[in-house]
Amino acid sequence: VHADRAHAAAERERLTTAIEQVAEGVVIAGADGTILYVNPAFETLSGAPRSELLGRNVDTLRHTGQSDTFYRILREAISDGRQWKGRFASRREDGTSHIVEATVSPVLDASGRIVNFVSVERDITQHVRMSEQLQHAQRMESVGRLAGGVAHDFNNMLQIILGHVEMALETAGAEHPLFRDLKEIQSSTQKSADLTRQLKRLE
Fold first, then answer.
1. Predicted local distance difference test score (pLDDT) of residue 74
2. Through-space distance between the first and last CA atoms of the chain, rounded to whole angstroms
3. Are 84 and 103 in contact (CB under 8 A)?
4. What is the DSSP string of 29-57?
5. Alpha helices (H) in the chain, listed in sequence order
6. CA 144, 150, 154: angle at the middle one, nearest 5?
7. What is the structure's pLDDT at 97?
8. Cβ atoms within 10 A of the Cβ of 35, count?
9. Which residues of the chain have pLDDT under 70?
10. Is the N end or the C end of the chain the one with fewer CB atoms within 10 Å?
């Protein structure tokens, strides 16, 4: 019996040491939502020391921009004994905001009653920002290719117009009543062709 207790104590010590050292923030709360434990990573994530977090209700942790529906779905899931995974915007104690990815799991006793909740959280703000920047760059690249393709097709049409205008000018001669109008069409078409060449550089 003594050996079993020593083994169990050693297992608990290893588990505690592991949780204390993981990069993800870990919060353990009672069934009523009272915070019972936070690891150092969660102190960093929240911007508050453990002494200020213990005993608070998890609802007091500052999440920004989340709707009542968001919290209702989260509470319904974990109250039914299901795990919840998702992202939310959160605010540190100093007021700075960040994006958190979390997994909240209910802990059940032998009878199936919920006795604790465990939340594992990590800051994904930098990941989200880099992903958004990549998507923006890809959109700009797509716009550039589209603009270049359109400019190429449009330039082909303008060259056809210019060719026809030049033939019409030669046929009409300077004394023809439409000569001045044809010259205006030629000038405007040439300006449009110059603009399309600038767009083609985006291709």
1. 84
2. 76
3. yes
4. EETT-BEEEE-HHHHHHHTS-HHHHTTSB
5. 2-21, 40-46, 50-53, 68-79, 125-172, 179-200
6. 140
7. 85
8. 22
9. 1, 62-65, 199-203
10. N
Alpha-carbon span 128 to 25, nearest angstrom: 18
- Cα–Cα distance measured from residue 190 to residue 110, given in angstroms and rounded to the nearest whole number: 83
Token pair 């921009």 in the structure block, residue? 65
72: amino acid identity, one letter: R
Residue 99 and residue 129 in contact, taking contact as beta carbons nearer than 8 Å: no
Nearest 5 degrees, angle CA 116-CA 113-CA 6? Answer: 60
Give the relative orientation of helices 179-200 and 125-172 as an angle to the nearest 10 degrees: 150
Q: Which of 10, 30, 190 is nearest to 109 (CA)?
A: 30
Residue 38 φ/ψ, nearest 5 degrees: -140, 145
The answer for residues whose C-beta is within 8 angstroms of residue 85's C-beta and 6 or more apart is: 101, 102, 103, 104
**pTM (2 decimals)?**
0.61
AA identity, residue 102: A
